[in-house]
């Protein structure tokens, strides 16, 4: 509205100028007088957020999702597909309202089945050609075996799906894709891609007692680095009785985490193991790049501090027994339940100040994608509903499902729940945005071909600090980082073969 008022005022002023000035415009680009005021101020129309598909009467079709059921990991439980009724929970109610809108508009029903391992549960059924589910919603790493068996539809071949639209995560589609295929997608219809991305939590009270300011200013200025974090770690670890033994539940660890953090920190330096060739193909180098090795060397002090894999690391941090805790962003839902925990959120630290952006990566077990089984072609009603195949019908409705999630489900989870119910300070809201801004997707790591991805980093630097039977955690100073290159090179051929076999499977002619 302000822009319209300013434009109207500007036009009025121009109209009142003496006519003598009317011919004084310069000829710019072959157009006398140059661009008009209207042309200069007109904003380009953003069509990526427009949904213009034809409304189909689906004649009561029941769309079934099979999703993963989780008990103990409540912060990772699927809650974005189905809701029985309104109950006051913001995410639940957003899901219920979205589904109600879709069911009425398209004359259909939305249902879900919850099982422990959806991808495994349906594989035999899919191999037999049986149609029961329209969608599988599961971890990306669990979905890959189904695509390798040609049991999933390629979204890029579905005319009813436009992957360039704003409700799809473009980076994820590229990162999950191999050989130009897109067997699993994510976007505004899911929240687990956000919940499965790494952030750094810190205990404000511990840093304050050690006379450190909260690191928000450092992060904001691009100066939150590995060295800065290590400096704070060294100043805040505490062997309570000075016996040199780091005892779980008694001593304060400077950094609590898990072996997976080894690769996560390398990825936070903006680095890949694999690379994309000029022809757009994934390449697995014969050995680890110098950039990765340099990052690994820089990380050694941080990753060999007494911290690693103490049993139930999240509860230890929530109990005040750690300065820093690196975990999935979804774990913030657990931290918000502890009134006595004065915590903050940060992006993963940079390698150094020269690094331009903060980066994070995803846990491929917990980052869920939507997949359409090829057996949807056996749906009995797709022709009646106006589609050429069952997979096109499923793709059409998932497109609508995702569009109607944009600005509803995503807002309910991230803006209303995470930012305004869980996070305890405005700076952490800003930091969460910064932490999740840039996600690094490395397909070789995501799918762990030949156990050459995250597994190599875990094995090369994860044993020090692993909880022992005596309830102690051994400092990681004895970790042999020299094994990283030899482990990688011993597996690179197997990784290349696994990648080649996968590509052969998914590109084979029927």
Structure overview:
The strands form four sheets. Strands 2-1-3-11 form a four-stranded mixed beta sheet. A four-stranded mixed beta sheet has the order 5-8-4-9. A two-stranded antiparallel sheet has the order 6-7. Mean pLDDT is 83; it is low at 1-43 and 463-479. α3 links the parallel β1 and β2. Helix content is 39%, strand content 11%. It has two domains: 61-194 and 366-406, Periplasmic binding protein-like II (D-Maltodextrin-Binding Protein, domain 2), CATH 3.40.190; 198-360 and 442-492, Periplasmic binding protein-like II (D-Maltodextrin-Binding Protein, domain 2). The protein has 510 residues and is α/β, with parallel strands linked by helices. The chain has 20 helices and twelve strands. α3 packs antiparallel against α16 (409-422), α11 (261-267) packs across α19 (454-461) and α19 packs antiparallel against α20.
Largest sheet: 4 strands, mixed
Mean pLDDT: 83
End-to-end distance: 56 Å
Question: What would you report as the Rg, rounded to the nearest angstrom?
Answer: 26 Å
Q: Into how many domains do the coordinates divide?
A: 2
Main-sheet strand order equals 2-1-3-11
Q: What proportion of the residues form beta strands (DSSP E)?
A: 5-15%
Question: So, CATH architecture of the largest domain?
Answer: 3-Layer(aba) Sandwich
Give the fraction of residues assigned to helices. Answer: 25-40%
Structural class: alpha/beta
How many alpha or pi helices? 20
- CATH homologous superfamily of the largest domain? Periplasmic binding protein-like II
Q: CATH topology of the largest domain, which one?
A: D-Maltodextrin-Binding Protein, domain 2
CATH class of the largest domain: Alpha Beta
Number of strands: 12
User: What is the global morphology?
Assistant: globular
Point out poorly predicted stretches.
1-43, 463-479
């Amino acid at each position: 509205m302000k822009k319209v008022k300013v434009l109207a005022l500007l036009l009025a002023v121009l109209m009142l100028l003496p006519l003598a000035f009317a011919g004084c415009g310069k000829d710019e680009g072959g157009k006398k007088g140059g661009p008009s005021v209207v042309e200069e101020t007109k904003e380009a129309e953003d069509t990526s957020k427009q949904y213009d598909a034809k409304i189909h009467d689906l004649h009561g079709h029941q769309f079934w999702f099979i999703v993963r059921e989780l008990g103990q990991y409540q912060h990772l439980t699927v809650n974005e597909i189905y809701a029985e009724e309104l109950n006051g929970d913001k995410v639940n109610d957003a899901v219920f309202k979205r589904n109600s809108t879709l069911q009425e508009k398209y004359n259909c029903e939305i249902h879900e089945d919850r099982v422990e391992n959806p991808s495994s549960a349906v594989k035999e059924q899919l191999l037999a050609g049986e149609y029961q589910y329209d969608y599988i919603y599961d971890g990306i790493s669990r979905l890959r075996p189904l695509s390798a068996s040609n049991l999933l539809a390629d979204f890029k071949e579905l005319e009813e799906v436009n992957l360039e639209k704003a409700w799809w995560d473009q980076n994820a589609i590229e990162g999950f894709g191999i050989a130009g295929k897109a067997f699993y997608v994510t976007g505004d219809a899911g929240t687990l891609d956000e919940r499965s991305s790494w952030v750094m939590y810190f205990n404000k009270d511990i840093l304050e007692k050690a006379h450190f300011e909260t690191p928000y200013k450092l992060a904001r200025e691009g100066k939150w680095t590995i060295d800065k974090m290590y400096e704070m770690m060294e100043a805040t670890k505490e062997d309570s009785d000075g016996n040199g033994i780091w005892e779980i539940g008694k001593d304060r660890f400077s950094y609590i985490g898990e072996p997976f953090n080894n690769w996560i920190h390398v990825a936070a330096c903006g680095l890949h193991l694999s690379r994309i060739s000029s022809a757009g193909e994934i390449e697995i180098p014969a050995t680890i790049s110098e950039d990765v090795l340099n990052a690994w060397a820089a990380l050694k002090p941080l990753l060999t501090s007494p911290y690693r894999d103490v049993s139930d690391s999240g509860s230890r941090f929530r109990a005040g027994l750690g300065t820093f805790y690196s975990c999935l962003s979804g774990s913030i839902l657990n931290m918000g339940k502890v009134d006595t925990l004065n915590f903050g959120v940060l992006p993963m630290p940079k390698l150094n100040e020269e690094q331009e952006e903060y980066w994070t990566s995803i846990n491929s077990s917990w980052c869920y994608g939507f997949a359409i089984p090829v057996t949807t072609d056996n749906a009995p009603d797709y022709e009646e509903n106006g589609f050429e195949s069952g997979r096109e019908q499923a793709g059409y409705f998932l497109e609508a499902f995702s569009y109607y999630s944009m600005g509803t489900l995503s807002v309910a989870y991230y803006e209303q729940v995470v930012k305004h119910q869980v996070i305890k300070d405005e700076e952490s809201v800003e930091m969460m945005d910064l932490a999740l801004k840039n996600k690094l997707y490395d397909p070789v790591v995501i799918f762990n071909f030949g156990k050459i991805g995250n597994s190599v980093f875990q094995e090369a630097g994860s044993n020090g600090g692993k909880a022992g039977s005596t309830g102690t955690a051994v400092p990681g100073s004895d970790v042999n980082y020299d094994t990283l290159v030899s482990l990688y090179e011993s597996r690179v051929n197997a990784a290349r073969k696994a990648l080649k076999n996968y590509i052969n499977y998914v590109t084979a002619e029927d």
